[in-house]
Amino acid sequence: MRNNDRHGQDIASQEALRRQIVKSQLQELYEFRNKVCPRDSHIFHNSIEDHLHHHSISAVEDWIHTYKTAIPASAQLASQLGIRQTRALTEYPMFNPIGRPRQQASLPAGPLPG
């Protein structure tokens, strides 16, 4: 009985258990999403559901196997270097968001005081 509970009684239940395990492992890695070095953030999708929607379970298992040590290492490096949640330069506005003090209108015509 215990074996069937753990591994599923039929193919459908085996796939459901496999998907549940993969989703759990994916959630663990996605917890590092905002903690990795900015150069590594491109490996993540917008959400876990988006990741699972765009790839097969086998492909997600491969992704997990590929990045399961690299993601925590990147998060640790980012923490050491103080660069987590840093945006790329191209993501910053091209204008100066700090307003300038307003310039006074030109002085009335006539000789300068003095």
Provide a brief overview of the structure.
This protein has five helices and no strands. It has 114 residues and is an all-alpha fold. Helix 2 (11-30) packs parallel to helix 4.
Model description:
There is one protein chain. The protein has helices at about 1-5, 10-30, 50-55, 55-65, 70-80. The protein is an all-alpha fold. It has one domain. The protein is elongated.
How far is it from the N-terminal to the C-terminal residue, by CA? 101 Å
> What about the largest sheet?
none
Q: Output the number of helix runs.
A: 5
| Structural classification | mainly alpha
Detail the poorly predicted runs: none
Q: What order do the helices and strands follow?
A: HHHHH
Radius of gyration: 27 Å
Specify the overall morphology. elongated
Strand content: under 5%
Q: How many domain regions?
A: 1
Q: Roughly what is the average pLDDT, rounded to an integer?
A: 82
Number of extended strands: 0
Q: Into which percent range does the helicity of residues fall?
A: 40-55%
Q: Give the assembly state of these chains.
A: single chain
Which features characterize this protein?
114 residues, 0% strand, 49% helix, mainly alpha, elongated
Chain-wise SSE layout:
Layout: H1 2-7, H2 11-30, H3 48-54, H4 57-67, H5 70-81
Helix pairs in contact: 2-4
